[in-house]
Amino acid sequence: MKNSKLIELLKTFDANEWRQFEAFVASPYFNGNENLTRLGAFLGKYAPDFSSAALTKEKAHQAVFPGTPFDARQMGYLMNYMIQLAEEFISIQHYRGQSLQMKVDILAEYSRRELEKHYNFLYRKTKEELDGTRPDLTQFEFQYSLAKVASEHFIRQRVRSFDPTLQNAVNALDELYFLQKLRFSIEMLNRQAIVSTDYELSFMDEVQGYLSARKERLPLIDIYLHIYLSLANDNDERFTKLIQLIELHSEHIEQAEKRLVYLYAINFCARKIRQGKDEYVPIVLNLYLRGIRDRSLFEEEYLSHWTYTNVVKLFLRQKEFEQAEAFIKMYSDNLSPQSREDALHFNLAELYYQKEEYGEVLSHLSQLNFSDLFYHMGSRTVLIKTYYESEEIESLLSLLASFSNFLRRNKKIASGLKKTYLNFCNLLFNTLKNNPQKREKIREEIQNTQPLAERAWLLKVWGEQRW
Questions:
Q1: Rounded distance, CA 195 to CA 410, Å?
Q2: Which alpha helices (H) appear in 27-71, and where do they start and end?
Q3: What is the 3-state secondary structure (H, E, C) of 206-273?
């Protein structure tokens, strides 16, 4: 029973949700099946982790149908009914969190029931609440839903006069369409740059032509239009305009929407940097820092250790060591407890490696707990580089051998990532052999091997060898 679809679903409930679900199952309004009520009471003994070995279908059947022989089919039907009840519960829980949607639906019912005073009072309150929210896709959806309800209410009143609500509904629908169309199209372009696939960007010539010709555009639509134009045409001028729009309007955009905007802009810069355009380094660094300061790049309450590390790498790329160290120490407390210590010491090790303070590198690497495979492989790479720069070649060769064995034997490492680091180990080992007959061949392999970690550093090592 522990591996059933029902238990997999119920395991996602926290303690508070489980208490609410128990009350939901026991409520005759939502559940008139007493067998389900008894099953809910039985499951409550094992909630919310459901890890006990005593949680079996046989024991559940005995609790629901005492004194009767076990019937697997009967138990299967009951568990399916419980899944349906759990699905209804999570849909209602979700709906309860959508206060604006509830108000829009109540307005539609007030209109249908011809409760004019109730309708007018709630409409004013809902409109004020909606106008006070920061723009994002959800706000655009509710603007349209509210305008649609208002237009339908006007029609029910059978008033023979100009209907402004109809124009409002049409305008809101247009803005919602343009925003969603741009978002979907941008994501298509974004995925095309990562995965070898082609999406059909239907009507986008017409959409961008229409929007570009408009004298005034809503700020959020203007931002997404320039993201699209930057990506679709690889257009530096459009991207410069995008940065200006972000600086001008980002404070007035809802956090989740702002996060999406930052990430698209960061990805654009990352591609440019990979093309060798280093002028994008300070731009992307500024985007990261803005998103961290206003917390839009936080994931719930924590800063991702990937974002943290990316910012440090950008500072180090520009040799801004003081800024890198200040950032590392200032934001380490904002990392999740699981990765905090590893992220702190790994990035300090990277910093001191760049500063050629190799004793400090070794000190910080020794404090890693390897909370993530990234830190295991990253720390080994930094340690290998440190041994080389410190001319501790025997230690380097020993570490190369042990690291290669670790990579080959560890089945948890994705094949692409494993190959990236194995190629690094093999090419470094071959370079350190100093075989004059293979000198040019090794250089070509370093330049052309895919995938490969630390390509630029390997070329530096190759150039320093006495062939």
A1: 26
A2: 34-44, 57-64
A3: HHHHHHHHCCCCCHHHHHHHHHHHHHHHCCHHHHHHHHHHHHHHHHHCCHHHHHHHHHHHHHHHHHHH
Neighbours of 251 (CB within 10 A): 9
Phi, psi of 303 (to 5 degrees): -85, 130
| CA-to-CA dists, residue 169 to 110, 217, 464, angstroms | 19, 17, 69
Query: In this structure, are residues 446 and 459 in contact, taking their beta carbons and an 8 Å threshold?
Result: yes
Rounded distance between C-alpha atoms, residue 440 and residue 428, angstroms: 14
Task: Indicate the DSSP class of residue 45.
Answer: T
The reported pTM is 0.81
Q: Is the bond into 28 cis (omega within 30 degrees of 0)? A: no
**Dist. CA 62–CA 74, nearest whole Å:** 12
Q: List, as one string, the DSSP characters of 400-445.
A: HHHHHHHHHH-TTS-HHHHHHHHHHHHHHHHHHT--GGGHHHHHHH
- In the chain, where the domains are located: 5-96, 101-176, 372-467
* CB-facing half-sphere around the CA of 329: CA atoms within 13 A: 6
Measure Cα distances from 56 to 6, 8, 87, 210, 239 in Å.
12, 14, 22, 62, 59
* Structure token pair of residue 132: 């006070």
**Dihedral angle over CA of 329, 335, 338, 341, nearest 10:** -10
Report the distance separating Cα 290 and Cα 284, nearest Å.
10
Q: What confidence score (pLDDT) does residue 403 get?
A: 95
Tokens for 227, please give them.
């993201």
Please report the pLDDT score of residue 349 as a whole number. 97
Segment 437-450, tens digit of pLDDT:
889 999 999 999 99
Mean residue pLDDT of the chain comes to 93
**Nearest of 85, 111, 104, 90 to residue 27 by alpha carbon:** 85
Round to whole Å and give the CA distance between 76 and 117. Answer: 50
366-392, pLDDT tens digit by residue?
999 988 888 999 999 999 999 999 999
| Interacting residues of 176 by C-beta distance below 8 A, sequence separation 6+ | 140, 141, 143, 144
pLDDT band at 197; cut points 50, 70, 90: confident
Q: Which helix (H) or strand (E) holds 352?
A: helix 340-354
Model pLDDT, residue 467: 63
Question: What is residue 302's three-state secondary structure?
Answer: strand
Contact at 8 Å (CB) between 74 and 82?
no
* Nearest partner of 223 among 202, 254, 248, judged by Cα: 248
